[in-house]
Fold this protein.
Amino acid sequence: MSETITHKGACHCGTVQFEVDAPATPNVRSCTCSICAATGFLHLIVEADAFRIVAGEDNLTEYRFNTGVARHLFCKTCGVKPFYVPRSHPDGWSVNARCVDKSSMDGMTISEFDGANWEAFIHQIT
């Protein structure tokens, strides 16, 4: 695995801020499930200890649907979802790479993931 660095990120208004430890050029996934396709979320999936909410946790609101396992977290002020707890990785986090400060990145590699049929393709991301 590539060496990791600490990236900073935030929602659109900056109220919710986070840090994530990931490579300078992370591998992210564009998912085809209904919610990700609608919001343009780019998944940077990390273990729980590689992610920290540093400001605005009290300004998050939660949305759950279907099985209720995934915890979709949104800023109450601007409505952006900078990260969430995914059903596929309930012990980790999925950070929206679009919300990471690009000044710490050397680009990113984007691949598509068939999230509409994720149970059949989970082996691609575990």
Remarks:
- The first helix runs from residue 34 to 39.
- The CA atoms of residues 45 and 89 lie 8 Å apart.
